[in-house]
């Protein structure tokens, strides 16, 4: 990576929807240069993805926590560390609520998680405390997010199905299928996602 790559990444971080033409103008290089550099940054895994930033409260995710989790000692030595890392990955994959998971130097798993409401949070906390591998956990509730909303993903399963937002009118939500079109899916296959 050189200075152009660094400036390119900084500009993309600021606005990932900026056009190649505007990037080229801002960085004082050719559009083809921007295209090739973006391609190389993707190939080398420096640039993993182009994404959007979600405002969690706007989609009904209102309770955010940082939790540290201490596992029960299984064996002493390297296997403990391997189990710790494996369990951290398990939490991240098993619970859609877990947005971030990391193993700390204090042999704790640290997670950031988000929830719709107190009931959803209490259910998660209960499941964690009942896990036979977990010795204890401590939680810090976060009041507001000042920086770092990029950590949030759009996770439809976390949203309240009954809580419809203002993004669609009732007509849009209750759109009737065209009588002339045949549907290939049964009623059981349909999934409604409301904001």
Explain how this protein is built.
- The chain has a four-stranded antiparallel β-sheet, with helices on one face.
- It contains six helices and four strands.
- The protein is of the alpha+beta class and 195 residues long.
- Among the domains are: 41 residues, Winged helix-like DNA-binding domain superfamily/Winged helix DNA-binding domain (Arc Repressor Mutant, subunit A, Orthogonal Bundle); 87 residues, Lrp/AsnC effector binding domain/regulation of amino acid metabolism (RAM) domain (Alpha-Beta Plaits, 2-Layer Sandwich), CATH 3.30.70.920.
- Strand 2 and strand 3 form a beta hairpin.
- The radius of gyration is 22 Å and the shape is elongated.
- The chain starts with a helix and ends in a 22-residue tail after the last helix.
- The C terminus is likely disordered.
- Helix content is 34%, strand content 16%.
How do the helices and strands line up, and which of them pair or pack?
Layout: H1 3-14, H2 20-27, H3 31-43, E1 63-71, H4 78-94, E2 98-103, E3 109-115, H5 118-130, E4 134-142, H6 170-173
Helix pairs in contact: 2-3
InterPro entries: AsnC-type_HTH_dom, Tscrpt_reg_AsnC-like, WH-like_DNA-bd_sf, WH_DNA-bd_sf
Pfam families: HTH_AsnC-type
Keywords: DNA-binding, Transcription, Transcription regulation
């Amino acid at each position: 990576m050189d200075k152009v790559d660094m400036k390119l990444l900084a500009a993309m971080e600021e606005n990932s929807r900026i056009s190649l033409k505007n990037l080229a103008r801002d960085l004082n290089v050719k559009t083809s240069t921007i295209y090739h550099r973006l391609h190389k940054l993707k190939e080398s895994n420096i640039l993993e993805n182009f994404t959007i930033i979600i405002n969690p409260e706007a989609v009904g995710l209102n309770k955010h926590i940082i939790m540290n989790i201490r596992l029960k000692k299984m064996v002493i030595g390297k296997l403990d560390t391997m189990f710790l890392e494996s369990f951290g990955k398990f939490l991240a994959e098993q619970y859609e609520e877990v947005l971030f998971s990391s193993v700390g130097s204090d042999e704790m798993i640290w997670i950031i998680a988000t929830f719709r409401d107190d009931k959803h949070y209490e259910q998660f906390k209960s499941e964690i405390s009942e896990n036979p591998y977990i010795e204890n956990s401590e939680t810090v509730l976060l009041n507001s997010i000042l920086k770092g909303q990029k950590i949030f993903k759009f996770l439809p399963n976390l949203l309240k199905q009954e809580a419809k937002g203002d993004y669609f009118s009732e007509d849009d939500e209750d759109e009737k299928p065209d009588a002339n079109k045949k549907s290939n899916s049964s009623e059981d296959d349909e999934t409604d996602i409301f904001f």
